[in-house]
Amino acid sequence: NAGVMQNPRHLVRRRGQEARLRCSPMKGHSHVYWYRQLPEEGLKFMVYLQKENIIDESGMPKERFSAEFPKEGPSILRIQQVVRGDSAAYFCASSPSGGVGNTIYFGEGSWLTVV
Amino acid sequence: DQQVKQNSPSLSVQEGRISILNCDYTNSMFDYFLWYKKYPAEGPTFLISISSIKDKNEDGRFTVFLNKSAKHLSLHIVPSQPGDSAVYFCAANQGAQKLVFGQGTRLTINP
After folding, report:
1. Which residues of A touch B93 (CB under 8 A)?
2. In what order do the strands lie in the sheet with B56-59?
3. Which of A83, A101, B40, B94 is 20 to 30 A removed from B66 (C-alpha atoms)?
4. Averaged confidence pLDDT in chain B
C-alpha cells in the first residue's frame, strides 16, 4: 500500500522561474493538504483540497501560489516567479475523509531551492 | 501568533529512561491533538493522537496526556531508544483537518 507520493524530491529553480510540485495521495484518500516548512520552523498549513475543489486556502500566499487537485491525476502546487524566500520543504498530506479524528499522512516532501 | 508552542527546542535523554516532550496551546477550540516524528529529509510520521474528551491515550511505549484546563499536552516515551532520536512535532486540529503545528523539539537519545 503505497504512501503519499511526492515528486520531485528536490527541485532547483532560478529566481523568476516556475516551480511545480506534484502529490499523489494514498490509495483511497480523497483529501489532500499542502504544508510548507521553512528552515528551523514548524510546518505551516497552506491549502486543503478535495477532488476538483479547494476547501481551505487560508494559508496560501495571495500571489504567485496556486493549487489544484483535478478529477484525474495528482495534486499540483504551482509557484510562479519564484523568489529566494520560497526556498523551503513542501509537504503534501492526505486523509480518507475530512472531519476531526482522521489522521493525516504525510509524504516525504519536496525540497525547493531558489538560486 | 503562535497558537501551538513547543518551548524546548531540544531535549537529551539517556537510553532506557523516560522522554517527556511538552506542548502548550492557546486556542480552546482545538479538539484533537496529534504528535508526529520527523527524521531529516523525510516527511512527518504520525505517532499518536488524543481527542479533547480524553486525558490520556497510550500506544506501546508512547503515551500522550492532555490537560485541558492548562491547555497543555505531553508525550511520554518509555523506555527511550536510540531510534527515537528525531524531531517531534505537536499539532492541533482546527476543524476540517487544518493542523496547526508547534515548532518542534529535537530529541536525542544517548547510549
Report:
1. 100
2. B4-5, B19-25, B72-77, B62-67, B56-59
3. B40
4. 94
* Strand, coil or helix: A86: helix
Instruction: Name the band, by pLDDT with cuts 50, 70 and 90, for residue A100.
Output: low
Mean pLDDT of B41-67: 95
Cβ within 8 Å, pair A45-B98: yes
Compute the Cα dihedral for B52, B101, B19, A105 and give only its sign. Answer: positive
Size of interface A-B (CB pairs under 8 A): 72
Helix then strand then coil, % of chain B, to nearest 5:
5, 55, 40
pLDDT tens digits, A22-39 = 999 999 888 999 999 988
Query: CA-CA distance, A90 to B59, in Å (whole number)?
Result: 29
Contact between B46 and A103 using a beta-carbon 8 Å cutoff: yes
Examine the pLDDT at B79 and tell me if it is beyond 70.
yes
Cell of A30: 480523497
Mutate to test the interface with A, among B24, B97, B101, B103 (most CBs of A within 10 A): B97
Q: Which residue of B has its CA nearest to A99?
A: B96
